[in-house]
Amino acid sequence: MIMDTANLNTENSPSVSPALNKIPPETKTIYLMGICGTGMASLAGILKQEGYSVTGSDQNVYPPMSRFLEDLSIPVLKGYCPANLEPPPDLVVVGNVITRDNPEALQLSRLAIPYISLPQALKHFALKGRRTIIVAGTHGKTTTSALVAWILEKAGMDPGFMIGGIINNFQRNFKIGEGPFFIVEGDEYDTAFFDKGSKFLHYSPWITVLSSIEFDHADIFRDLEHLVQTFRRLIDLIPPDGLLIINGDDPIVVSEAGRAKCPVISYGLNEGLQWRAVDITSRKEFTQVRILRKGTEYASLLTPLYGIHNISNLLSAVAVSEFLEIDTSILCESVRSFAGVRRRQEVKGEKAGVLVLDDFAHHPTAVEKTIGAVREKYGSRRLIAVFEPRSNSSRRNVFQERYASSFDRAELVFVPEPPMMEKIPEDERFSSARLVDSLNKRGLKAFYSLDSDNLLNQLIGQIRKDDVVLIMSNGSFDNLHDRLLERL
Questions:
Q1: Has this prediction a pTM greater than 0.85?
Q2: Which of 32, 166, 197, 239 is most buried, by CB atoms within 10 Å?
Q3: SS (H, E, C) 19-31
Q4: Rounded to whole angstroms, how far apart are CA atoms 309 and 128?
Q5: Which domains does the chain have, with CATH numbers?
Q6: What digits encode the pLDDT tens for the residues 119-155?
Q7: Cis bond leading into 251, ω under 30°?
Q8: According to DSSP H, which parts of 281-408 are helical?
Q9: E strand or H helix at 227, and its extent?
């Protein structure tokens, strides 16, 4: 069977192997290279549930993904080695962490084993015959797609989904489902070393939510215009009978939405938008918000989500719900019972009167909005922000100055030296020491450390009862959250 390669972008790629994009009709064994990535692990679970024999390898095998795969009884080989492909599997799925000179990638070519990318695998094994709901944008993808999945689940639609975070209501980040809809967190990052196009270009969108467009992924995109181009391609893929749901508070999104061939629905906090949130009131456990549709009250909702950015995410999910004709009573109950996503303002524990939160924030806008949301939620408590610049963009100096204004609503800030800096050209490297100096000049009390061990010792020396410690990283951060709670 030959895969659909219409969206394949081989710009700056090596010569394409004859084995690329071919799925043997009698495929039984599937091997995943880079299996511990969030998306790859969820794909492994989907394939396992579909009855395939699934194995894989990864350089970094650690919780929570290692436990996640262990619970699914999926064997994981530590490290990349040519011998891992003996005996040859029927098919290999190549994650986008795999470089063209990876030992296993080279072995693929030698053995001529059929291989495809994660998005191609998802399209072939999960999306066929279903209508895809893609949640895309620089910010808010995980929470929004998780909420949409939960609303459809509560409505009895038995949706499938693959999302970049563990949804607490499901205790996993994937589900095959038997219903007509499949929800995908639409990632704009590149697909694989042999396909430099964005992942979301493979998913044949029907409904697309576009939350924001802001420069990110400096290792992939040259500038903002380069990034905007890939979102234009996504908008162009939506069929005339589909729907584009846009954040009307984002001027770039609004500007690009005009090219859509399908109907466009806007949401946000500003007047004149089709869906608006008004009268937002924070309570102890819930946020109360009134939802207006074309100026008329549609529903009054209680949600455990907090922060303006999450209320905006909620609005887009409401627009999806209405388009799918889900009853407002089901919507209200779904929103109220939504338990969130791990690593999104997640409470890790409270000891000695100190509350520890975990969040995935790494882009300067996400850092700023997350700190602002936590400040509003826990306004009477001192807020300590701990930030690890770990992503490919945050380890580069492209956001050096922008980060300096992202921490203004915290009282104390701790920033370690970024990891893996040897992979970044010297003239492009982010400086944590320089950021800490800038923060102190702004009147904040900021601390620099060489590593997480020193940072932990610094934290212990500064923490006091009633503090809220917000730890932000898109990686494991050396398990800092649990280590801090143990020390407390």
A1: yes
A2: 32
A3: CECECCCCCCEEE
A4: 33
A5: 29-118 (3.40.50.720), 129-337 (3.40.1190.10), 346-487 (3.90.190.20)
A6: 999 999 999 999 999 999 999 999 999 999 999 999 9
A7: no
A8: 308-323, 328-337, 364-377, 400-403
A9: helix 224-237
